[in-house]
Structure formats: structure tokens, C-alpha cells
Specification:
With about 200 residues, the protein is an alpha+beta fold. About 50% of the residues lie in helices and about 15% in strands. The chain has helices at about 10-15, 35-45, 65-70, 85-95, 115-135, 145-165, 170-190; strands spanning about 20-25, 50, 60-65, 100-110.
């Protein structure tokens, strides 16, 4: 299902002045702990309900051409595929437009199958996330430790919460999510307060 079909009403999107529509992202198959962890992380990030949302990954995002031109497209200062999509979404929202999350407009996405690439991606997303925060807030020094502590806390709390409330989630999945969050925090700290 997609735009103009049963899932998303095109007239409703036009009435809400929606500039971009993004859908769900699912792993090709959830056959191991790595894919299960990625699936859980994504659902934790965006949820499962259709609604107006602040930002979405652009691997499954349609943006009106005029809006994309209005905000200047992607910022090429983001050196890796991480946070450039949220930067684009924030700039779309800054000029007064809406981004709509339509989970039923889903794609299948290939996810890493080993811990090392997941940790590497966590590090890159942390570093580029700091670049985005620096760009949006101006100076990274005053709040540099907060995300690190938050990610460490998040990793511990999430693992405990999963253990306590979702006993069917394997402990290996919890450890993979915790490893990603810690790598994200380290990547955040590695960001230098300078534009590259």
C-alpha cells in the first residue's frame, strides 16, 4: 500500500501541507540477533503509529522537489551516511512544513550481520549526530558529556528494561543494542568542535 491507495490518503496529506512522507523500515528477514536488534532500535526510534514526526531516515523518505530545492538539499558537510537525513528533515520543519510517518509504506533494508559493523555504524552515527547538534546549537563544548552519559545510561536501562519486561527478547539482542549505544556515545565524544 502506498500514497493514493488504501494506506495513506493523498488528500489528507495535501490538507496538512505535508512536504515529505516516510515509511517503515524492516530487515530483509529477522533470522538472527543482529537483525532483531536493528528492528527493535528502529521501532524504538520512530514507533509504529502514523503521525506527523520530527525526522526520519531518508532511505525511505519522499520529499517534494520544490521543498528539497527550497531548503538546499542535503548538507554535504556530513561525511558519512548518518544524520544528514535528520538535518534535512529539521530544515524542512524549520521552514514550516510537515513530515508524515506512514509505517505501512515500508521497505526492506539490509542490516549488518556482525557486531563489528554495528559498532562501527554506532560510532559514525554518534560522530555525525554531534556534527548535527553542533550545526543546530552552535557549540558542542557545554553539552559534550550529556549524550555520552545518556547513551551509557540508556544502554544499561534498556538492557535491564528488556530483561525485566520483555523476557522473550534474547539477551544477545539486548547486548547488541547496548554495544551500539555505547559506540554512539564514543563517536559523539570523538567529534571535534570544528567544521570539516
Amino acid at each position: 500500500r502506498g500514497l493514493g491507495e488504501e494506506g495513506v490518503d493523498r488528500g489528507e496529506l495535501e490538507a496538512r501541507e505535508v512536504a515529505a512522507v516516510g515509511g517503515g523500515i524492516s530487515p530483509l528477514k529477522v533470522s538472527n540477533a543482529y537483525e532483531a536488534a536493528e528492528d527493535f532500535r528502529y521501532r524504538r526510534l520512530v514507533g509504529t503509529e502514523a503521525r506527523s514526526i520530527g525526522a526520519l531516515p531518508t532511505c525511505n523518505l519522499l520529499v517534494r522537489r520544490g521543498i528539497l530545492e527550497q531548503v538546499g538539499g542535503f548538507d554535504e558537510r556530513f561525511v558519512c551516511a548518518a544524520s544528514e537525513d535528520f538535518d534535512l528533515c529539521f530544515r524542512i520543519k524549520d521552514v514550516g512544513h510537515t513530515i508524515w510517518f506512514a509505517p505501512e509504506c515500508a521497505i526492506l533494508h539490509d542490516h549488518p550481520q556482525r557486531l563489528r559493523p554495528i559498532i562501527r555504524r554506532g560510532f559514525i552515527q554518534g560522530r555525525e549526530g554531534a556534527r548535527l547538534a553542533f550545526k543546530r546549537r552552535g557549540n558542542v563544548n557545554h553539552w559534550r558529556m550529556a549524550p555520552f552519559l545518556h547513551c551509557l545510561e540508556n544502554a544499561a536501562v534498556l538492557s535491564f528494561w528488556l530483561f525485566a519486561h520483555l523476557p522473550h527478547v534474547p539477551s544477545r539482542v539486548r547486548w547488541i543494542i547496548a554495544a551500539f549505544d555505547i559506540a554512539f556515545a564514543i563517536g559523539w565524544l570523538s567529534f571535534q568542535n570544528q567544521e570539516r
